[in-house]
Every structure is written in C-alpha cells, then in structure tokens.
Amino acid sequence: DLVVITKSESSMALLRDGKILKQYRIAMGDLPAGHKLKEGDQRTPQGRYTLDYKKPDSAYYKSIHISYPNEEDKLRAKALGIRPGGMIMIHGQNPKSPLSPEQAQQY
Length: 107
Fold this sequence. Notes:
Blueprint: E1 2-6, E2 11-16, E3 19-25, E4 51-54, E5 61-66, H1 71-80, E6 89-92, H2 101-105
Antiparallel strand pairs: 1-2, 2-3, 4-5, 5-6
C-alpha cells in the first residue's frame, strides 16, 4: 500500500497494487512550495516517509504521524546547522465540517 501526495495538485491518493483506491483534496502548511528544511518553516516535507503510528489523542481528525525527518533530512539539517523539526502528521477533517480543506487550514 502507498500514500502519494501531489503537492502541486493539493491531492492525496491511496494506492494498492498501483491502483488508486481513494483520492482526497488536501491542505498543507502555509508555505507548501519546496521541501521542508527546518523547524517552523511551515513547509510540507517531500520524499519517502513511513506512516508509522496513529495518534488517537490528537486534536485533529484521525492523525497519522509520518517519519519526518528521515536520515537524509537529518544530515541536511546538521550540515546547515539547523533543527529539522518533526511531529509532522497527516490528518483529516471532520467529515461533518462544512468547510473546504482550504477554509479549514485558516483556523
């Protein structure tokens, strides 16, 4: 199984055996273009990550942690003398919400 996020299209696809099972519109950090480099830069990571655990006590709907920073991210941050950040989650929006993902992102 694979989750593919296409930042330029603000979309997330869930794939199994190379076939799209579900597709969603998504909202990202305030500055989604480019790769996340440091803590607090409001960027969305780019690369291969593992969805490693669910966070049931999250304030956000069905939060799943991603394994950012990976080893490459850590090495880059160390070379630049910055902190890469962490605790990046993929999460949904309550299905009963009348807001679009873009509207919900503003809160």
